[in-house]
Specification:
Layout: E1 2-4, H1 9-25, E2 31-35, E3 48-52, H2 76-80, H3 89-95, H4 109-113, E4 124-128, H5 145-157, E5 161-165, E6 185-188, E7 192-195, H6 196-202, E8 206-208, H7 209-215, H8 220-229, E9 233-237, H9 240-245, E10 252-256, E11 281-285, H10 288-294, H11 300-309
Length: 310
Amino acid sequence: MIIDVCPEFGYELVCAIPYANWLQQQGQLEKVITCKGMRPYYYFCNNVEEKYDRRSIDNRSNGVQNLPNTWIHHNAIAVTGKNYSDLTEDEKYKVNGVLDYSQWSPPNYKSVYQDDSLQLPEKFIVISNRYNLEHGQAPVGYFDIEFLYNTILHLTNQGYSVVYKRPSNTEFATDPNEIQNLNITADVNDIGVITDYQLIEMLPDSYLFDDIVSSINTTYNEAQLKIFSKASGFISMGGGSSILCSYFDVPVVIYVNTSGDIRPGYFDGDSYFNKLSKATVYPIIDMKDDILKRGYRDYNKLYETIYKVF
């Protein structure tokens, strides 16, 4: 069997890679064709072609259509034998976020990429942020500088170091929402306008993810998997980054902004989030439409959860 995919990163992590790993375990995986830089995620396959420079959001043509799970948000047909539209509200609740796991085996990145030789803080939390166009619109879901300052201060006071990740979108094959690199800024009293990257450089026990990656003599994604394998926990924006964070057996606090795909029950029970590893996932949902209506992101529940978990 040949896996040939170039979907959004989250789709590849959830729908393609666990299927490819399952095929390998069955002795049925012949080759993987994927995006530039993705070879480390398919460490279990000896025949990986990094073909695609760009990811596609068209699931009718990006290879997802040929997988057992063609939709990341549910597989109602496989789970219930019925179309999603024919389900009761209670049945929908039970299938939201639930996939067909009969040909699905997430690889154990933590055990494979654990590297004690790396010069990393002894105990650290990764904050995984993003600041991208959202389907052509200005960014809505992200961690702003005030939130970063408050959260990093709390974490370092609790004895953690912080590794801050916000890609510049030059490190990997991008999808249409990642084609432009934008800056998070704030006007700070007595300092002036600073970026989030500059904030990290000002704070003790805080490190830029890309600086650590550059010190590791390997590819971006292999370095990422090695760093994540040593993390004590994650605080992540929703989307593909939060899915990756959920592969590593440690707590993951996720700030989820969406217009509707994340439906009630999405993170419960048999959700794929709970099956990627032994990680405990703490989703905080702040709907995009609510943010736009009120005019600001409400981090209150997110703060409460972070203070409880870390």
